[in-house]
Amino acid sequence: MVRDWYLDSFRDIRSFSEIKNMNDEKEFTEVIKAIKVRHNNVVPTMALGVQQLKKDVDPKIINQDFVEIHQFLDRFYMSRIGIRMLIGQHVELHSPNPPPHVVGYIHTRMSPVEVARNAVDDARSICSRQYGSAPDVHIYGDPDFTFPYVPAHLHLMVFELVKNSLRAVEERYMNSDKDPPPIRIIVADGLEDVTIKISDEGGGIPRSGLRKIFTYLYSTARNPLDEHADLGVGDNVTMAGYGYGLPISRLYARYFGGDLQIISMENYGTDAYLHLSRLGDSQEPLP
User: Fold this and answer.
1) Has this prediction a pTM greater than 0.85?
2) Which residues does 78 contact at the CB level (< 8 Å), separation at least 6?
3) What's the CATH number where 34 sits?
4) Per-residue pLDDT tens for 182-208?
5) Do 98 and 17 lie in a common domain?
6) Is residue 234 pLDDT above 50, yes or no?
7) Rounded to whole angstroms, what are the CA distances from 232 to 177, 219, 258?
8) Residue 134 and residue 124: Cα distance in Å, rounded?
9) Does one domain contain both 61 and 156?
10) Percentages helix, strand, coil for the chain, rounded to the nearest 5?
C-alpha cells in the first residue's frame, strides 16, 4: 500500500510538464500539496506492517537484532521527514497571510516553552481520556526566550516524550493512595544547543530494555493493533503501543543536527534529553 502511494506520487511529479510561468508554479504547488496529504498515514500504515511481521515471525528472531529492518526504517523515515519538510516549506511560502516571524515552516522566534506547553496540553488530554486523570507537568524556563526552529517538529517530539512519561507515572500510581509526582520539563538555552529535559518518576526502564527503546519492534505497552485492527490507517492517537514514538522523535531531532538521549534509573524514573542545534549550519542528514 505504501509503495503504491510512492509510485503514484513519483508519477505525478514526473508527468508534470516544465514550469514556465507563475500559473504553472501554482498548479505544481497544488500537486505537491496533494502528495503530502496522500502520505499522511505512512507512519501508522508502516507500523501496521511491522506489527503484522512481528506477529508472524518467531519472537527469538525479533529479539536478535533485526538490524536490516531498523536501518531500512531509519533511512526511510529520515527521507520522509526531509521530503515533507521541503514540500511543507514550499507550500507554506504560498500562504497569503503568514503569521509574523514565520518563514514557511520555520518560526524565526519560536518559544520552546510555549511549544512545550501546547504539547503538554495535548498529551495530558489524551492521558485523561484513557486513564480518567493525568499527572501534573511543571515547565521551567524563560517563556520569552526564542530561537529559529520548526514548531511542528518540536511539538511532535515533546508530545511523544511527555506522553511516555504520563503513561509511566499514571500506571505506576494507578492503585496508590499517594498523589502521582509531577513530570518536570526544563528548557536550557546554551550557546550551541537548546536542551529540553523531561523527567518523570514513573519507575524507569531496566537497563536491558534501554538498548531496545530506539528500535521499531519494541514497545512496553500493549499493541493497539491487536485490539483495533483498523487503527493503523486512521489519525487516531493512542497513549502508546506502536513502539514508534522514540525512534521517530530521535530522527526529527537529528534532522536539524540535534539528538535525543534517554537516561533511566530503574524503579525510580526516566530523564529524556532533547538537544536542539541552534547553530543553523547543519547539513540535511540524507540517508
Assistant:
1) yes
2) 251, 254, 255, 285, 286, 287
3) 1.20.140.20
4) 999 999 999 999 999 999 999 999 998
5) yes
6) no
7) 36, 16, 29
8) 6
9) no
10) 50, 15, 35
